[in-house]
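[09:14] KT: can someone run the structure on this one? pasting the chain below
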Amino acid sequence: MRMSIKTKILLAVAAVLLAATCAAGFYYLDTLNAEKNAPAAMADFSGRKKEDVLSWFSENGFDESQVTFSYAFDEAQEDVIINQSVAKGDPFTKSDTLEITLSSGPDPDEMIELPDFTGMTTEEITKWFEDNNLTNVTYQFTIAEGIEADHFVSMEPEAKTMVKRRDRITVTLSSG
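[09:31] RB: done, structure tokens below
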């Protein structure tokens, strides 16, 4: 059986249209895939929380398995981000990983020298302990002749002693 020229032309046109349709489909799928794999500019997470990182990953179409979290002592507040492995503005893709370091807070074993609080008020002394992240401080009051109420009387351990941030400190203040 012989095909007519008209049939051959129709088959050739159909083949060309089929090839063009396939090429357009592959191009479209490749473009979609490229958009899904397009890099995002890394955000600056310093000073932010873990939840902010996870939200950014979700909003930008990345998987949470691409980020790891670790902790280190730092003067920053606990659970605040202090370091990230990919810098702000750098491209980040689905094949990349991000390492985030969060603060465990100040090192409780760091040594601090206690100052001489003579002449200072409870408010001034409390502020010094807070600023230096010493949290195991107890205040007691006693009657102290010649020392104004709410002022320093003594401390255990004594001034100029090196203590760990977590060591127990007792401050005695005048009740008047």
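[09:33] KT: thanks! The two ends are 122 Å apart (CA to CA).
[09:34] RB: yep, looked fine to me
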